[in-house]
Design goal:
This protein is an all-beta fold and 420 residues long. It has 2 helices and 36 strands. An 8-stranded mixed sheet has the order 15-14-19-20-11-13-17-16, with no helix packed on it. A hairpin with a 2-residue loop joins strand 5 and strand 6.
Length: 420
């Protein structure tokens, strides 16, 4: 039936408030299913939008027609019901066509999994105000809602409070959905998805340490020399060079000792291994099984190699005398290779200070296997009384080095170089 025939035979025009059909808005691309909400005996047999018929389905349902290819545009159009007796009821501007929404941008595009973050979300024209925003399926609270971005009253920018996601153990990219009051939606594309990152932070700490509210800083308020061990909250994620973390010295004190930095294996099924939550009972980090540490510096820095102890040449690194406020210490664990083509690829612990590689220490003992979790370890003794995690995940650029040689034995011998 044509639009002209409809207009000639209609008998009355009614207000949209009397229309018992839902929803009353939809995409210009069509395909929206309309449902009759009134009494079945009062249901229409045909529905027309801007003169175009909807496809009738069973159960008094109708599917909106494609409008874009027929020259239609976003906006309100008349809706006509054709009843079983031929009578037609016209509802002026009762149905609204809208362009499918697009998510235009986020700022910032990433947020911490451990704390809620304010994120600005901008969408394309939605034809109505933004009623809700979901991140990874979870509803966000509004901070600020502002209609009319760049002079367009139908565009919208909202500032939402993205909730924390503390259960994440690794970085994760999640989708965003912006929902308008008229039912239109804007969904993220691969370019506009939000990244949850797991920040470097501490989990379990010794009873002599104080952990900050954001879990990124540990401090030693006393001169205690034991029970000052801290573990990373989450296992380290493997990067392009290996497993890396970095800390910054926030406070120092006079001491001939120095802290130790390294990694350990998180053996979840072992009663001996520490957990990353709750208090730590170990006197020193060296008491942790399957642990590789460098530092301490009691008359020379030490390398704790899964229980075996050796000295680090003083010419390469003396942490006791060189650590000051602002100093950064980077720890890189390079896993060994079991490949027959790489027989020389041995696991190693590498220490950086202020971006410079200081020592490369070949690791022996029960080195981690593929699939085992590697956790940051810090023993906050001596001259450093407070350290914080630095939010970087890749180490400084390394200079080409010959294959590292072992440190000298703790019991004696010459102090051979840790690397050339």
């Amino acid at each position: 039936m044509t639009s002209s025939l409809i207009s000639q035979s209609q008998s009355q025009s009614l207000r949209p408030t009397f229309l018992k059909l839902a929803p009353l808005s939809g995409s210009i691309d069509g395909g929206v299913e309309l449902h009759w909400t009134g009494e079945p005996e009062d249901a229409p047999v045909e529905v027309f939008l801007d003169g175009r018929p909807c496809a009738a389905l069973s159960g008094h349902r109708f599917v909106t027609p494609l409008s874009r290819r027929r020259g239609g545009s976003a906006g309100k159009v008349d809706l006509i019901l054709e009843m079983w007796d031929g009578r037609k009821e016209r509802f002026l501007e009762a149905f609204e066509y809208w362009e499918p929404g697009r998510l235009l941008g986020l700022h910032p595009a990433s947020c911490s999994s451990l704390a809620s973050t304010a994120v600005a979300v901008v969408s394309s024209r939605l034809g109505g105000h933004i009623s809700s925003v979901r991140v990874g399926g979870r509803l966000c609270d509004f901070e600020v809602k502002k209609e009319g971005v760049d002079g367009d009253e139908n565009d919208a920018r909202v500032l939402v409070n993205v909730p924390s996601h503390p259960d994440l153990g690794c970085d994760e990219i999640v989708d965003i959905e912006v929902i308008s009051s008229n039912g239109n939606r804007a969904r993220s594309t691969p370019e506009t998805m939000l990244k949850y990152f797991v920040p470097r932070s501490f989990g379990s700490v010794g009873p002599q340490l104080v952990l900050s509210d954001d879990c990124e800083t540990v401090s030693r308020p006393s001169q205690a020399t034991n029970r000052v061990v801290a573990l990373g909250r989450h296992p380290l994620q493997r990067g392009s060079e290996g497993y890396y973390y970095e800390v910054r010295i926030e406070a120092t004190c006079k001491s001939i000792r120095a802290p130790a930095f390294g990694v350990c294996v998180q053996e979840r099924d072992s009663g001996e291994a520490p957990t990353t939550e709750g208090p730590l009972k170990h006197l020193e980090a060296r008491d942790i099984p399957r642990c590789w540490l460098a530092g301490y510096d009691r008359g020379g820095a030490l390398f704790l190699n899964d229980g075996a102890e050796s000295k680090i040449p003083s010419s390469h690194w003396r942490p006791a005398g060189s650590l000051k406020v602002g100093t950064t210490i980077g720890v890189l664990w390079i896993p060994g290779s079991a490949s027959p083509s790489e027989p020389e690829a041995q696991a190693a612990l590498i220490i950086f200070q202020d971006g410079e590689e200081r020592v490369c220490l070949p690791a022996n003992g029960r080195v981690p296997r593929d699939g085992e979790s590697i956790v940051a370890v810090l023993d906050l003794q001596g001259s450093a009384s407070s350290v914080s995690m630095v939010q970087v995940k890749e180490p400084p650029q390394r200079q080409p080095q010959p294959q590292p040689r072992c440190c000298s034995s703790r019991s004696g011998g010459d102090e051979s170089s840790a690397h050339e």
